[in-house]
Write a structure and sequence with these properties.
Number of strands: 0
Radius of gyration: 12 Å
Oligomer: single chain
Order of helices and strands: HHHHH
Shape: globular
CATH topology: DNA polymerase, domain 1
CATH class: Mainly Alpha
Number of helices: 5
CATH architecture: Orthogonal Bundle
Structural class: mainly alpha
Helix content: 55-70%
Number of domains: 1
Length: about 90
Amino acid sequence: MDMDHRLRRVRFRAWHRGTREADLLIGGFADRYAAGWNEAELIWFETLLEEQDVDVMAWAIGTQEVPEAFQGPIMNAMKKLDYVAIAMR
């Protein structure tokens, strides 16, 4: 599968998590950063997508410790939460 197809697939999976909160956090992160990822970073994110949403969200907001396998610069970027766009009504 070529990189463009994988990126489209990752973005779809990131935006279709099951809850609006997870969609905003994980999908927003993919929208902001995925285009610049190399092979290893894309594999990291594909692996992250296999985790439970509640865990990924807890790692991102700091209510649970991030497992060693997911620690590093990408998770640090996810923890900034500066990519979550919330429309105020």
